[in-house]
Amino acid sequence: MKKLLLLTLPFLLSVAAVASGAIEGEIEKQPLNISAIVMFLVFVAGTLGITYWAAKRTKTAKDFYTAGGGITGFQNGLAIAGDYMSAASFLGISGLVYLAGYDGLIYSIGFLVGWPVILFLVSERLRNLGKYTFADVAAYRLKQTPIRTLAALGSIATVILYLIAQMVGAGKLIQLLFGLPYELAVVLVGTLMILYVTFGGMLATTWVQIIKAVLLLSGATFMALAVMSHFGFSLEAMFAKAVEVHPKHQAIMAPGGLVSDPVSAISLGIALMFGTAGLPHILMRFFTVADAKEARKSVFFATGFIGYFYILTFIIGFGAIIMVLNNPEYIDHAKAMVNGAAPILGGKNMAAIHLAHAVGGNFFLGFISAVAFATILAVVSGLTLAGASAISHDLYANVFRRGSVDEAQEMKVSKIATVILGIITIFLGIAFEKQNIAFVVGLAFAIAASANFPVLFLSMFWKNLTTRGAVIGGSLGLATAVLLVILGPIVWVQIFGNAEAIFPYKYPALFSVTVAFIGIWFFSITDKSADAQKEREAFEAQDIRSQTGIGAEGASSH
Amino acid sequence: MTKEQIEHVRNNPKYQKLVKERSKFAWTLSIIMLVVYYAFILTIAFDPSALGTKMGDGVMTIGIPIGIAIIIIAFALTGVYVKRANSEFDELSRQVKEELKDIA
């Protein structure tokens, strides 16, 4: 067991690095990068223009939460891809390929395979049953107050954890790319995100995601083509050169022992697959389209774009091995003197950024840096909107006011919630600058997989689910996920400094998801109350709506 | 929905066909995806060198095309589902809704 753990440790650490999106370790501030700043300002000006345009079209609560439900499947597919392709996947995965070759592909695949399953089992039912948030679906035939409270807590926890990781990553990345101070970078990202969301709502957020997705996909395509053209578009020639220059040689063409323990492998798979299907900002995107047909198309396009993007990052990582690895221009000479090894400037997550310079000079470096910044902005905006909706629609309108609230009031609360969430995020971003945040995204995925997903899934598929089962089981899943992360290797050993972890795996999903499902099942079937009986009887009407869309929310007319 | 409407939809053979076929199709595709993914992950966990087997005289290993193929399979499966759902299933569900209107 010990040996297995030792073998898995590098795997877990690199997953953490990829997942957190943080540029780990010391960051040396770079000189001001003028072309990057100019391109970034163009992006900011453009998106603020869109926000102004969107603000004029955002009048009702439906406009604010779902862009009026009038986004097309293709647009939503791009926006979902924009939500999902964070700076962490772009820089982290290409950096991992640069460092270890094939292992980078293993992550990409893990992040992708949840999407088809979301399409087959979740997306259209969600669209047919919900209005603004996934709690609408979970609470459809159950008691509003307890279910919405649980769903909102799960959403807010997921959103805040994710935001911390994005903010810290953003601060460090911007410091490195643009030469701006960390605090300024965090305040800038927080302020822009508040502006997009409060004024432009879902419409502005969607278009920021779409533009960012197009920029990122174009930039990555250009880089991959530039790399391939060096080798006459022969993969074999590219791989041969990479194997020749990489210190690990042929080993980069095979799994490198990063996944060596089946329990961790399966647990990670469950966290990624079910976690993706429990992320509130992703689930919310399904309410922005007109009907189930468009919801399905969204996932089809999203899966295509995300899969294509991961293939590009794989080529980009190999390109970096060839063009960055032994190029004295990108070597951190100061560190090389100390360690003897030759690390690249800014660490392995900068591999794609240096490659951008190698293939396209300063101008393209500026472009890719601006795209990386835009990527972070888009992701945090989506997250903030999902968090604000959980506060205003679930907690305020349906729990606190019991559903009797006028739209204008609910929207006002949404906007206040956005501003407060934004300010909290800025403070947390600054507070966590020097903290080890490697556990944060793992925890967000674990909570999404263990609390949000089981309740949502069973509410749609299992007739016998009752409020009592959902609340107790969902809470148990949430508590187990949090507890196991605290007792696990990252928090217990690396942060608290204990010698050995009480819970040996970094990914608790296999255990916490099981606890949630068993808890929900047990406390539902033993629930003999009259209310529980009514909830079971209400399943049929819900199921008919979820299957056919009879009575589903439509798009608004304008 | 009223009790009568629920009763009507439930007894509509088209609705029964829709539910049965879509559910079978969706679960089949989900299981294909899960089997493909977990076969890959467990191969890596138990026998990582298998994916490092060379394909010819060069450096290419079978792991590369297999990995890329899984990405393409994931996308292809979504395409297969969307094609059938957006035509056949949506048509059935449209007819179910239509017939419900007739009785109302």
Task: Name some characteristics of this structure.
heterodimer, A: 558 residues, 23 helices, 75% helix, B: 104 residues, 3 helices, elongated
Task: Please tell me about this protein's structure.
The complex is a heterodimer of chains A (558) and B (104). In chain A, helix 12 (262-276) packs across helix 21 (509-525). With 558 residues, chain A is mainly α. Chain A has one domain (2-445): Sodium/glucose cotransporter, CATH 1.20.1730.10. Chain A has 23 helices and no strands. Chain B is mainly α and 104 residues long. Chain B has one domain (3-103). Chain B has helices at 3-11, 13-46, 63-103. In chain B, helix 2 (13-46) packs antiparallel against helix 3 (63-103). The radius of gyration of chain B is 22 Å and the shape is elongated. The model of chain B has no long low-confidence stretch (mean pLDDT 91). Chains A and B meet through helix 6, helix 7, helix 11, helix 12 and helix 14 of A and helix 1, helix 2 and helix 3 of B.
> Number of DSSP helices of chain B?
3
The total number of structural domains of chain B is 1
- Domains counted in the coordinates of chain A: how many? 1
List how many beta strands of chain B DSSP finds: 0
**What Rg of chain B, in angstroms, do the CA atoms define?**
22 Å
The description of the largest β-sheet of chain B is: none
> Percent helix among the residues of chain A?
over 70%
Q: Please state the structural category of chain A.
A: mainly alpha
- Could you tell me the CATH topology label of chain A: Sodium/glucose cotransporter
Strand content of chain B: under 5%
Classification by helices and strands of chain B: mainly alpha
> What gap, in angstroms, lies between the N and C termini of chain B?
11 Å
> Taking Cα atoms only, what radius of gyration of chain A do you get, to the nearest Å?
23 Å
Q: Identify the biggest protein-protein contact and residues per side.
A: A-B, 55 and 52 residues
| Sheet having the most strands of chain A | none
